[in-house]
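Thread title: Can someone regenerate the structure for this chain?

I was given the following input by a collaborator and told the matching structure tokens would be attached. They weren't. Posting the sequence so someone can regenerate them.
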Amino acid sequence: MTCPDNMVCFTEEEWVQFVTDYELEIIDEVSSLSPESTGDAQAVADFTWQVLFLTPWELAYIALPMSVLAFYGLSIYAIFKYIQRKFS
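Best answer:
Regenerated them for you:
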């Protein structure tokens, strides 16, 4: 089998060697990176501290839309229960 001029061809042994070397390079790169993985407890603690130290304006900015969504959700639930009681 001939290899076209614009392509790179490997024998099976060359391909296995190429892939093995490439995998080793990737493993070395990944192992050299040491990301600080955050555990669940650490994530909860970080979130709690972030919420505790929000300014009043940030709290209002979060609380108002959540209050509106809660009102909508509870209204739909109340209507559902009203219809359920009416037909049971």
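The two ends are 79 Å apart (CA to CA).
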